[in-house]
Structure formats: structure tokens, C-alpha cells
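Encode chain A's predicted structure.
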Amino acid sequence: MTTPTADPAAPGTTAAGTAPVATDPAGSAPADSAPAFGTVEPEAIAALQQALAAEHAAIWAYGFIGAFDKDQLDISRVSTYTQQHIISRDGTIDIVTGAGAVPVRTEVAYSLPIDVTDDLTTSRALSIIIEGDCTNVWRFVIGCTDNAFLRDFAVSALSDSAVRQTAWKLVDPAITPNPVVAFPGAPAS
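Encoded structure for chain A:
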């Protein structure tokens, strides 16, 4: 199953593959103050800030995971997934900025929910947690807006995270015996 992602080489594109903010011909600044994607509700901006914080944390955590997980397939997967989170992060920054807000900054370091050792199991388990956190925040964004562009962007980001989470679960069934989640981002029952 493939997921829609933008070409990382295309500046200003989002996970949905569209440029969220109109830019001047040089591509360096917004052409006008009105975002190309319409009005974003204040509660949606707050949700986007949480999603942006989760994307920052995911990028940081994948760097951490890459230092511990030396499996060749996992190294390739970590690199690809980091790039996908960078695309989501950059698109989210464009939307937040285009809506007139200041994007949250990345932290210097993040607390990890589990102790990661050089063991493949713990680094893979952290990957599953990271992607679960991202599906949760993107689901929250979807519920906070009526803006069609923003909902499409958030659905794409949620879907991408859910696919990555499932892929990690399939690598080692011992970590999670049931790799498929019926409703990604939904509260656990």
C-alpha cells in the first residue's frame, strides 16, 4: 500500500502534495497575507501546534532510533520515515504561518516514553509509539476544523502515520500481536 506524499525536492509542498501558501515568484515569501487554503479556526491552529510538536518529536526520535537500530532494513526505513515526517512538519509550518500564527519550535531534546537500548525490540517499540502519537494528534486536527484543505492535509498525515505504525508492527509481531488498528488515532478501548 502506498501513501500520498509530496516530492521532498519540491519546495513548499505538503504531505498532500500541494503548496498551502501562495508564494512570490522567487518562492521566498507569501505573496499576500491571505492564506491560499482559507480560514483556519483558532481551535484548529491550537491543534495544528500540537501536531507540529508531535512531528518535531518524531523527527528527533527517529534520529535517536537510528543511533541504536543497526538493522539495514530498519536504517532505510528510519531514513524514509524521517523524510516523511519532515514533509509533514514543513507543510504544517506553512499552514500555521499562513494562518498568521507563530509555529511552535522544536525542543532541544525530548523525554522518551520507554528506555531504548541497543536492542532492536526497544527501538522498534519506540517507533510504534511515535507513529501512534502522530495519528492521535492528526485525528484531533481533523475534528477541530471545517476547512476542507486542512482536513485533507490532516487525513493524509494521519494515514501516513498509521501506515508507518503498522509497518513497524509487522516487522516484529512479538511486539504487538495485532498490527492493524481499525480506527487510527482513536482512543484505546
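DSSP finds four helices and no strands in the chain.
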